[in-house]
Amino acid sequence: MAICGRWSGTLRCSWRNKTSVSAASFILRYVNKNVCICIVVSYYEKYKGIHPGIVLGRELKKRAIKQRPFALSLAEHPQTFNAITKGKRGLSTPLALKIERKLGLEEGTLVILQAYYDIQKAKEQETKHTPDLSILSKSLFWDTDINRIDWQRQYRAVIQRVFERGNENDKKEITRFYSTEKIKLALEESKTRHPYTIHKTN
């Protein structure tokens, strides 16, 4: 954040945090006619988790640059480049560096956005394969290592245990994770079969 003072018709900023212009955007909040607060919004924070190709597509559109000629100027196939700008294909580091130089972006901008995007997708995959462990009661799985449970293969045992011993929050989270239909199926099976055991995975 910076405090900006109006002086002779121009804005002067005293920076507390050194951030390069190419990696930040600025929001001015006027306090009065002489003083305003200038907030620096990190470029990376603004687009964190968004595919860098989507960001690139917006940048090209803003600059009125046509994708096909731009792709050819980088010795890149237009169809491949189009897939990147639609977020359907990852952006390689060599290509990202060429684009950054061509557009005058700070080196590493698109590379970092790709890394943030990859992290976001990895987290989403984790969420798909594992329920929110911060919600589930630890006492439910006292006899095993909860981090080593195969939640997909052992879903019957997990559902049975949660609905026998868990509280309402446990049941809601497991229902969210597995779906109502899968819960019903597992509970119906538990009435006709011996209790399932949760085993540790290797």
Automatic annotation (TrEMBL):
Species of origin: Parapedobacter indicus
Q: Where is the DUF6922 domain?
A: 136-185
Query: What superkingdom does the record give?
Result: Bacteria
Q: What is this protein called?
A: Addiction module antidote protein, HigA family
Q: Name one GO molecular function term.
A: DNA binding
